Amino acid sequence: MSPKPRVFSGIQPSGMLHLGNYLGAIQQWVAGQGEKTNFICIVDLHAITVPQDPAALRRQTRELAALLIAAGIDPQQTTLFVQSHVRAHAECCWILNCVTPLGWLERMTQYKMKAQKQESVLAGLLDYPVLQAADILLYDTHEVPVGEDQKQHIELTRDIAQRFNYLYGETFVVPEPVIRETGARIMALNDPTAKMSKSDFTRGHAIRITDEPDEIRWVVKRAVTDPGRDITFSDDPTRAGVNNLLQIYELATGLSRSAIEAHFMGKGYGALKNDVAEAVIEVLRPIRERYYHLIDDPAELDRILVIGAEQARAVAEPKVRLVMERVGFVLAT
Ligand code: AMP
Ligand code: TRP
To answer: What this chain does, per the record (predicted)?
Structure first.
């Protein structure tokens, strides 16, 4: 029997999760549990590449752990852990920094976008994708399930792995990004030309995973559509709003596109919004309920994270030792 493929993904504890995170990433992570060996990492080292309030970061790290478990990540089947609990990530990042040309990092679109928003850009922000490469490569990862926005970072990870292997001999597995066709880029409800994002707090922009049904109805009812009337999937940028609602409906119900188009045939945008809101409410309801239950018991959450970190260390520590040996360090015992 061939060993199960290894899956690694990460998520930042930098604010309440939204529907884009759930449909673009977390739903895939949950679906792959069991058949694959899964590692899910709460990336607090990445979060501090832009300024964070320490108390808020600590709270958001526990909230994210609770949300992931509430959304179906089962700590018995998936190694769920916090990045800073496993020192190998920072250690491996340093070594990879020393094989990564600066030009590769300066080209990253996410860096350029984030840097524009900062008054003073921190060195860690430029280095962000190298830390991400360390995350992935330490676990001999085959598959990295992410949203579309992470594709460039996974390609950079492949380049770094190949360069290291070339310089120091076969060390790293070269991973593949796994990006779903539907849901890879859930758009903002108030602006279907922009990606739904954690950092936009305008009411109507996003649906947060813990939003109450009335809030979800409010947001979906005001979602930007277009002056047309067809309710069909399309790539036409002028119909991005309706297409976004249909993708959300597809992922929330699990129905096929043809069944969905048949369902909405002859109906108006009011009906579409109503059905999308109700479908989202039903998907999020059990998650919200489990979340409030879990967040009430921080000691239990911390216990789960301690176990996750132990499991992660058992893989990452021998790997970083191998990396150190390859580059010529005298290994400390
Ligand atoms: P982040 O919110 O940047 O920590 O992203 C966590 C995961 O959610 C990553 O795999 C992202 O690619 C994914 N993601 C974030 N925003 C969206 C979105 N609007 N649509 C689909 N996936 C997303
Ligand atoms: N950069 C990713 C994001 O913002 C988070 C992340 C960090 C990640 N390390 C990772 C994703 C490793 C996949 C694999 O979404």
So the answer is: Catalyzes the attachment of tryptophan to tRNA(Trp).
Residue 202 lies in a domain: no
Question: Is 273 one of the annotated active-site residues of the chain?
Answer: no
- Per the annotation, the verdict on 114 as an active-site residue is yes
**Which ligand has its closest atom nearest to the C-alpha of 197?**
1
Residue 262 lies inside a defined structural domain of this protein: yes
Q: Give the CA dihedral 295, 55, 139, 32, nearest 10 degrees.
A: 30
The ligand 1 atom nearest the CA atom of 11: 4
Total structural domains in the chain? 2
Residue 101 maps to a domain: yes
Q: Does residue 267 have an active-site annotation?
A: no
Q: Do 78 and 140 reside in the same domain of the chain? A: yes
User: Do residues 108 and 10 both lie within one domain?
Assistant: yes
| 206: Cβ contacts below 8 Å, ≥ 6 apart | 18, 19, 20, 188, 189, 196, 197, 198, 200, 219
Provide the 10 A C-beta neighbour count for residue 54: 8
Inform me whether the pLDDT recorded for 1 exceeds 60. no
Residue 74 burial (CB count, 10 A) = 13
Closest CA to 195 of 6, 19, 16: 19
Here the tokens at position 318 are 């021998």
Alpha-carbon span 254 to 192, nearest angstrom: 22
Instruction: For 21-60, write each residue's pLDDT tens digit.
Output: 999 889 999 998 989 999 999 999 999 999 999 999 999 9
Q: Is residue 232's pLDDT more than 70?
A: yes
The pLDDT value given to residue 12: 96
Q: Residue 332: what pLDDT?
A: 82
Residues 298, 4: Cα–Cα separation, whole Å: 32
Structural domain boundaries, residue 56: 6-178+298-327
Cα 244 to middle of ligand 2, angstroms: 23
CATH code assigned at 238: 1.10.240.10
pLDDT, averaged across the chain? 95
